[in-house]
Write a structure and sequence with these properties.
The complex is a heterodimer of chains A (285) and B (378). With 285 residues, chain A is an all-alpha fold. Chain A is 75% helix and 1% strand. The two termini of chain A are 34 Å apart. Chain B has 2 domains: 228 residues, P-loop containing nucleotide triphosphate hydrolases (Rossmann fold), CATH 3.40.50.300; 127 residues, RNA polymerase II/Efflux pump adaptor protein, barrel-sandwich hybrid domain (OB fold (Dihydrolipoamide Acetyltransferase, E2P)). The chains are: A mainly alpha (285), B alpha+beta (378).
Chain lengths: 285, 378
């Protein structure tokens, strides 16, 4: 082996170790465990039992679909809120305030997600600031509990995902020449036409890239649904946790894990197909 | 001046704080003509064009398009279109979709749109380009699509913001002629801004030379070259040589001047000059004739200069000569070269005699060097 080839493989080793030991091997292991039925008397055997159980128990697949739906909804709301923010940072703000504004988006991330979630809890709980304020100005007679709703989960997810939506949007809008917008006006279009036919298609790679990242973060989030959703709002990651940690049912937990992976892969693939983008034009940029 | 101009501006001004970008302009552009605004960068031409398009609002004054005052019309409601400096073809659309964008805004029916797109692409020489992506086109093709996108809307006036600037030299030369041809074919009024005097000269019916927010002269290219009104125009349009001098006498447009060393020269001027006034004599490089010893008295003005450099470039060959500390450029056509050179084509000696006639010697009052504003265009 020549020296150059030797160097190449040497430098490649960390990557191979990472992807092999931390990604591929655990997943195959999980797949194997999920397809195993353990028995004291007959030993281990191959079985689809855990997957069947998932479809038989309505709690499981209901939570699964609910998690998917709420993650999509939260992603969509994040996009809705982030687009104007990103547009302002990229196109309206002066170069000097641009950096400051991006820093503002980054600021909350200096805190841990746990602390951020507690921040929201201080605001929203029954004895919290907002509830107190509403009572003080006479809009409410009794303490209001604003935590532990589906809406609170969405709120928390949007808040924790915004940065990951704003940054790719800013980077794709930043590269857009203002003359496209002027040309859009000059050729007779109004703001509506310009947004939908020129600006939005131009920002599409950023939109899809942001959506994919935020959606994956939402789907796999454990802390926000657990803390802000309370007992009424089950999230699929919580079920995975319960199986592994509380009930020591690794086989069912693994099956759930694989199903979550299938779900996120399927939805990302669908989003790319629908938007006509590819991984290389969005996340790969 | 025409009775029904396509575009008319009255006392049009634009101030940015204390800076006056466009200063009380009055002008008309005749229907169907090619009108160029020529000026150095920072002279206010881009601001003027953006006011016409509606992207800047005038500080004062009015803009009329075919007698209709458009000051208060938003850009998307003005009956004019603009070809942008970098063309601004929408990268997410095909060529056909780019052209359809404006047609859709005019609420043209789908079938009619397709017909018009086909026709316009045919006319600009890109019949099969409708389904191509913008990135597949070459520089010249993009140029034509940008024109087609505007011309399909049949604007009353088409504004062009240095669209040839991004092209390489060869293509630019070709596109100049092509643009002129397209303008004639379509009969649309073109308002073209550029800092390249050759573009303005080749294509235009009329050229306005702009400096410091004002028009120094508005004239046909020939007049601009032969009869510049102001020192700025004389220096900015085409190459010219300058000689410092003082006025000795003036009779109508005939002027007699004396150079720094007391040499008498004859020239012409449309300005009213006084005796003893400091002036500049402007002589084009092609008006200066190198003389050999046999030439006697055939030119009204003759001077002896020191030959500094012989720059051979085929038909564009130049001689650089020095007279009273001032550099003179002399155009030397190939057939003239043999008259003053040896058999090998080399110029011998360091002295060069030059002669020219009074009609090619324009005398204008001395003004400080026109400050070509180099800063970024406002």
């Amino acid at each position: 082996m020549s020296q150059q080839r030797w160097q190449f493989y040497f430098l490649l080793t960390p990557f191979l170790l990472w992807i092999g030991l931390l990604i591929i091997w655990p997943h195959f292991n999980m797949l194997e465990v999920s397809l195993t039925e353990r028995s004291w008397t007959q030993g281990d055997s191959f079985s689809f039992k855990h997957y069947l159980l998932f479809f038989q128990q309505s709690l499981y697949w209901n939570t699964y679909l609910r998690t998917a739906w709420m993650a999509i909804l939260a992603t969509f709301i994040t996009l809705l809120i982030s687009f104007p923010v990103a547009y302002y940072i990229a196109k309206v703000a002066k170069p000097r305030s641009k950096l400051a504004l991006l820093m503002c988006c980054l600021l909350p991330f200096w805190l841990s997600e746990l602390v951020r979630a507690y921040g929201w809890m201080i605001l929203l709980r029954e004895s919290g600031i907002i509830s107190g304020l509403l009572q003080a100005i006479g809009l409410a007679d009794a303490p209001i509990e604003m935590l532990y709703h589906d809406a609170t989960i969405i709120l928390g997810l949007v808040y924790s995902g915004m940065l990951f939506m704003v940054v790719p949007l800013v980077s794709s809008l930043d590269s857009m020449d203002n003359s496209y917008i002027e040309a859009g006006f000059d050729l007779g279009g109004n703001r509506w036409h310009i947004f939908w036919e020129i600006v939005f298609p131009y920002a599409m790679p950023g939109v899809v890239s942001g959506c994919i990242i935020v959606f994956m973060l939402n789907l796999g989030n454990y802390l926000i649904p657990n803390l802000m959703g309370g007992k009424d709002s089950l999230w699929f990651t919580e079920m995975v946790y319960t199986q592994f940690i509380t009930r020591f049912n690794w086989e069912l937990g693994s099956a759930f894990g694989i199903l979550l992976l299938v779900l996120s892969s399927l939805l990302v693939w669908l989003a790319l197909k629908l938007s006509g983008q590819s991984l290389s034009t969005t996340v790969g940029r | 001046m025409t009775s029904n101009p396509a575009l008319r501006c009255q006392q049009l001004s634009k101030h940015f704080g204390d800076f006056c970008a466009v200063d009380q302009l009055n002008f008309e552009v005749a229907e169907g003509s090619f009108f160029s605004i020529l000026g150095p960068s920072g002279c206010g031409k881009t601001t003027l064009l953006r006011m016409l398009a509606g992207f800047e609002s005038p500080s004062s004054g009015d803009i009329f398009i075919q007698q209709q005052r458009v000051n208060d019309l938003a850009p998307n409601h003005r009956p004019l279109n603009m070809v942008f400096q970098h063309l601004a073809l929408f990268p997410t659309m095909t060529v056909g979709e780019n052209i359809a964008y404006g047609l859709k805004r005019q609420k043209v029916a789908k079938a009619e749109q397709q017909k018009k797109i086909g026709e316009i692409l045919e006319r600009v020489g890109l019949p099969d380009a409708a389904n191509k992506a913008v990135t597949q086109l070459s520089g010249g093709q993009k140029q034509r699509v940008a024109l087609a996108r505007c011309l399909v809307l049949q604007p009353k006036v088409l504004l062009l913001d240095e669209p040839l600037g991004a092209l390489d030299l060869k293509l630019r030369e070709k596109m100049k002629l092509e643009l002129k041809q397209l303008q004639r074919d379509f009969g649309t009024t073109f308002v073209y801004i550029t800092h390249d005097q050759s573009e303005a000269m080749v294509m235009s019916d009329k050229v306005a030379v702009m400096n410091h927010g004002r028009f120094e002269q508005v004239a046909a290219p020939v007049d601009l070259y032969l009869k510049p009104n102001t020192p700025f125009v004389a220096r900015f349009v085409g190459n010219t040589n300058m000689l410092s001098a003082e006025v000795v006498s003036q009779h109508d447009d005939k002027v007699e001047i004396t150079t720094l060393s007391g040499l008498r020269l004859r020239g012409h001027s449309h300005q009213q000059l006084s005796v003893g006034q400091r002036v500049q004599a402007y002589i084009r490089p092609e008006a200066l004739h190198p003389l050999n010893d046999a030439d006697q008295g055939s030119f009204e003005n003759q001077i002896v200069t020191r030959l500094n450099q012989d720059i051979f470039d085929g038909a564009n060959s130049m001689l650089l000569a020095e007279f009273e500390g001032q550099q003179l450029q002399v155009l030397l056509p190939l057939q003239q070269r043999s008259r003053i050179s040896d058999s090998a084509g080399n110029l011998d000696g360091s002295e060069l005699k030059l002669g020219w006639n009074a009609e090619h010697c324009l005398v204008l009052e001395d003004s400080p060097e026109p400050s070509l504003v180099k800063s970024k265009e406002a």
